[in-house]
Specification:
Blueprint: H1 2-16, E1 21-27, E2 35-43, E3 50-53, E4 71-77, E5 83-84, E6 87-90, E7 93-96, E8 102-110, E9 120-122, E10 125-128, E11 136-137, E12 144-149, E13 157-159, E14 163-164, E15 170-173, H2 176-180, E16 184-187, E17 190-197, E18 203-211, H3 216-237, E19 247-254, E20 262-265, E21 269-274, H4 285-293, H5 320-337, H6 343-356, H7 360-364, H8 367-372, H9 374-377, H10 388-391, H11 395-414, H12 418-430, H13 438-449, H14 452-462, H15 471-475, E22 480-484, E23 489-490, E24 496-499, E25 502-505, H16 514-517, E26 525-529, E27 532-533, H17 537-545, E28 552-559, E29 562-569, E30 571-572, E31 576-580, H18 588-598
Parallel strand pairs: 1-12, 18-19, 19-21
Antiparallel strand pairs: 1-2, 2-8, 3-7, 3-11, 4-5, 4-8, 6-7, 9-10, 10-16, 12-15, 13-16, 14-15, 17-18, 20-21, 22-31, 23-30, 24-25, 25-26, 26-27, 26-28, 28-29
Helix pairs in contact: 3-4, 4-5, 5-6, 5-11, 6-11, 12-13, 13-14
This protein binds zinc ion.
The site of zinc ion has 5 residues, from helix 5.
Length: 601
């Protein structure tokens, strides 16, 4: 009995010290048909049924994505290779009830969509976003992970933020959160590296892993410009983050066969896809600047609502107007300061922000509420129609518009800037890796402005409320003003499609515009416009050219089976653009303001 007890204790001790570990192996013998064969081996499983699953969400994307749909041939084995029973309990969850602590699950993955969220397996390389690729074991999220690629070409490189090993095709990650955040490209790529030193003398290695048809000289030319973007980002915060394993990697695929234009931020890397030929132009850099700014703002200056990231459902955050909106604004700020975007182009981009706050989504919802909509709109897929144009404004442009207004106001009123707010957030939350709440952002603004009442009012009016800004006044110190883009008569935002010589309304008409007020909606057929039969868009344009704001015109249109006569009162298109005030060019105060705002660092 004594002996037996001792043996039991020894056994349970030895069981409890078996380290939990997950190892993945990736190979793609049928890459020509976009299939990969993946195995996941879990060691140290507790003596309960093992649940192995695909994710339903992906870092940086807030809507759900059914990655489980592209997984099949799921099998399970024990440590000796004996087959185990696999039971499917949900569309993407597999249960292995009988096991002895080690389970190996194998499956086939189909992947033919290279972007910032999905995966692509092809004979020319593997483009992998981890949640779209790898299953994981519930309850073993903290287990260490190793990953081994079998590549058909030993000259292929692996671009990833995973921890390297002595084997160029083997990597590791401390846990599931890090692993899932580490997109990986295995292919023949252009490769550039450079070092950047922080004020504390620590050096970090930057890498550009570029999958593109491009002569080496053009890649060099582009890399030099990318270095300037990195320097401009570092200047905003005064330092680079302490990148894990010492590197930051730009993984970029710029070619016509990627699925779409996209960019996704990660802690120490970004996954960029641009569906075009690589020409080395400045236009390519916008997405690089935006994603790079994220290595501070959202990856480390991190909303509490996104921690930890949940891989089984959508992730809702009230702070995306900061996380994405401010980053949207700063993407262009970095380019203009790096000399890669002209002042005029910068103001052209800012004009879009100013127009964004004049949309129904802003009239209806606060930036907080629009941020929370991300669980549906962030590349979320649905078949039915939505009324987004009338009740949602993107937290990218809405947040960007707030950033622009706040930056200008802090400069004019307090001799501070949004850079100071970002640095304050970096110092208190980013560098310390303490997730923030919106109260923390309010407090950072109060500290920078040295005025708590100002911050409280700003948040009440523009964050928890949806008051707009007086951009005309805000832009004045920089020598800019607002001008209407179109002075002609306007019926409201309208898009058409033509089918069988019929002019069909192709968009949700916009609340409070003449067409909307008249009851005209998507799918309606415009038959007559101002008494003239119309068949193409030009017919409408021709009529509008002969009218002024305030004039009434008659419309005959078909709605389903009814033909309706109505009239609309034409109005002014509210769209504006930022233009330079001529006098400003010779004004030294204006010049000084512009240099502080947009000049090189
Ligand atoms: Zn972003």
């Amino acid at each position: 009995m004594k002996h037996l007890t001792a043996w039991l204790i020894a056994t349970s001790l030895s069981l409890s010290v078996i380290a939990q570990h997950i190892s993945y192996q990736f190979t793609a013998p049928n890459a020509v048909h976009h299939e990969a064969e993946i195995s996941i081996t879990a060691d140290g499983l507790p003596p309960t049924p093992a649940l192995v699953r695909m994710s339903r969400s992906s870092p940086g994307r807030y809507a759900t994505h059914e990655f489980g749909k592209n997984v099949y041939n799921v099998m399970a084995y024990d440590a000796t290779g004996k087959a185990l029973k696999v039971e499917k309990t949900e569309g993407d969850v597999y249960k292995i009830s009988e096991h002895k602590g080690t389970v190996k699950v194998t499956y086939t993955l189909f992947a033919n969509y290279a972007d910032g969220t999905y995966s692509d397996v092809d004979v020319v390389g593997y483009h992998l976003n981890m949640p779209a690729t790898f299953m994981w074991v519930k309850g073993m999220e903290k287990a260490s992970i190793s990953l081994l690629f079998s590549a058909p070409d030993k000259n292929w490189k692996v671009a990833t933020q995973l921890k390297p090993t002595s084997d160029p095709f083997a990597f590791s990650a401390p846990d599931l959160q890090y692993f899932m955040d580490a997109p990986t490209k295995v292919a023949n790529m252009h490769w550039r590296e450079w070092k950047v030193t922080n004020p504390d003398n620590k050096q970090y290695t930057f890498r550009l892993a570029l999958d593109a048809e491009a002569p080496e000289a053009l890649v060099d030319y582009f890399t030099e410009k990318l270095k300037r973007v990195v320097t401009a980002g570092q200047a905003v915060y005064g330092e680079l983050p302490a990148y894990d394993y010492g590197t930051y990697t730009f993984i970029a695929s710029i070619n016509p066969y990627v699925a779409r234009g996209d960019g996704m931020e990660h802690r120490n890397s970004t996954m960029i896809t641009l569906k075009r030929d690589f020409d080395g132009s400045n236009e390519l850099l916008g997405v690089f600047a935006h994603e790079f700014f994220h290595c501070w703002n959202v990856e480390r200056i991190r909303p509490k609502s996104l921690e930890p990231f949940n891989f089984e459902r959508s992730n809702m955050s009230e702070a995306l107007w900061v996380a994405e909106g401010f980053t949207h604004y700063y993407g262009d700020v970095l380019l203009v300061r790096a000399g890669l975007l002209s002042y005029d182009q910068f103001q052209f981009e800012n004009s879009k922000l100013v127009n964004a706050v004049n949309t129904p989504g802003v009239q209806m919802y606060t930036p907080v509420e629009n941020s929370q909509r991300a669980v549906f709109v962030d590349a979320g897929v649905s078949f039915d129609r939505t009324n987004y144009p009338n009740m949602y404004t993107s937290y990218y442009t809405y947040g960007g518009a707030i950033a622009l207004a706040l930056d200008l106001e802090l400069r004019a009123r307090f001799n501070k800037s949004l850079d100071d707010v970002m640095r304050e957030l970096w110092r208190k939350f980013g560098k310390a890796e303490v997730p923030y709440t919106l109260d923390d952002v309010r407090n950072a603004l109060a500290a920078v402005a040295g005025n708590s009442a100002y911050a409280t009012t700003f948040f009440k009016e523009h964050v928890y409320g949806h008051q707009s800004f007086d951009y005309k006044k805000l832009l004045e110190p920089a020598g800019y003003t607002l001008q209407h883009t179109n002075s002609g008569a306007w019926p409201g935002e309208i898009a058409f499609k033509t089918e069988e010589n019929q002019l069909i309304v192709a968009n949700n008409t916009i609340r409070n515009t003449p067409l909307y007020i008249a009851g005209i909606d998507i799918d309606d057929v415009i038959i007559e416009f101002d008494g003239k039969k119309v068949h193409q868009v030009q017919d409408i344009t021709d009529v509008l050219r002969h009218h002024k704001q305030g004039e009434k015109i008659s419309i005959v249109y078909a709605h389903r089976n009814n033909v309706i006569n109505t009239q609309i009162t034409l109005t002014e298109n509210p769209a504006v653009r930022i233009v330079a005030i001529v006098e400003g060019k010779t004004n030294s105060e204006v010049q000084a303001f512009r240099v502080k705002w947009m000049g090189a660092r």
